[in-house]
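Sequence design from tokenized structure. All designs in this work follow the same two-part layout: the structure record, then the generated sequence. An example of the structure record is given first.
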């Protein structure tokens, strides 16, 4: 039996890369198709090769066993990654800041580090970027500005990807695949256009795919999405997934303070000072969303 990692999953077939980099197209044993054991990109598995390619390396196989996952991200659906790279474009389509915070919450829940990449800087004016910088005062995540077209910021992006397993996540059309092609031209990932009328992507990337990077590390390119469901979170735990609240822990007047309307709330006092107002707005919005579903 060989050990490998699932790098692609499509129509019941899984592409598994063994420790020497050889690829096997595999089917999975029954229990690995359903429930919590159902396989996804990133999973480490044991598999039995059943047929070798005529030229030697790789072939076909049967996946027999799933190895324990270090973590599991719900959206995009991947396991065993080190960090989440949230990709947004500044324009065409516009950046969805609330969606960024939703993704960050899921990353925090899984204990993943995360950064934000704002792409398509070539479409923005200098004054727009200055305005944005103001809005990102005290933003709790690393922000990298890039353009897959002009090459701006690619060195910083590469530096952040080096030696880690990252997952690229964000809406369709923001340039996830384009950025990866720019980071490593040999990848030749398919990219799509953005509709002029509704300024949305066309869901060009259809499946998650894990790729090795020549600079060291690997990255999973994923299909775009516009919604993230956080309804399985506990409202009382939400604050734990906002890392910028961490240093204020225990300083509110009430021990169970939810940082919404309680008096002497240390978090609320810091909004607009050391806390980014937009992030706090998202926190309020998510609390409201979680509370509402509790009532109905
Ligand atoms: N102006 C500009 N256009 C870009 C940039 N990056 C990507 N694009 C364009 O944006 C469109 C969508 O790019 P993709 O790389 O396919 O976007 P994606 O995020 O992979 O989209 P999905 O696979 O559908 O999720 C293409 O027409 C790209 O040429 C950029 O930095 N600047
Ligand atoms: Mg894509
Ligand atoms: Zn508080």
């Amino acid at each position: 039996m060989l050990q490998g990692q699932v790098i692609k999953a499509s129509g019941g077939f899984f592409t598994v890369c063994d420790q020497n980099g050889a690829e096997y197209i595999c089917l999975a044993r029954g229990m690995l198709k359903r429930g919590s054991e159902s396989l996804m990109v990133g999973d480490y598995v044991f598999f039995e090769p059943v047929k070798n390619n005529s030229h030697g390396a790789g072939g076909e196989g049967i996946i027999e066993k799933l190895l324990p996952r270090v973590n599991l991200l719900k959206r995009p659906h991947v396991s065993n990654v080190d960090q989440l790279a949230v990709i947004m474009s500044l324009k065409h389509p516009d950046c969805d800041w609330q969606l960024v915070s939703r993704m960050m919450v899921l990353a925090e829940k899984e204990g993943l580090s995360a950064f934000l990449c704002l792409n398509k800087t070539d479409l923005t004016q200098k004054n727009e970027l200055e305005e944005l910088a103001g809005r990102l005062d005290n933003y709790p995540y690393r922000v990298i500005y890039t353009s897959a077209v002009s090459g701006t910021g690619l060195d910083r992006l590469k530096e952040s990807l080096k030696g880690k397993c990252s997952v690229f996540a964000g809406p369709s059309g923001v340039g996830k695949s384009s950025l990866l092609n720019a980071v490593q031209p040999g990848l030749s990932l398919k990219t799509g256009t953005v509709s002029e009328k509704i300024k949305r992507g066309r869901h060009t990337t259809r499946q998650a795919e894990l790729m090795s990077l020549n600079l060291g590390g690997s990255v999973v390119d994923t299909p775009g999405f516009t919604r993230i469901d956080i309804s399985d979170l506990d409202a009382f735990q939400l604050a734990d997934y906002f890392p910028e609240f961490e240093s204020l822990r225990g300083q509110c007047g009430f021990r169970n303070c939810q940082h919404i309307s309680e008096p002497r709330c240390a978090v609320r006092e810091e909004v607009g000072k050391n806390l980014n107002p937009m992030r706090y707005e998202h926190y309020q919005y998510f609390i409201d969303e979680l509370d509402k579903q509790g009532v109905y």
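The chain has three domains: 2-69, 73-221, 238-295. We note this feature because it recurs in several other targets discussed in the main text.
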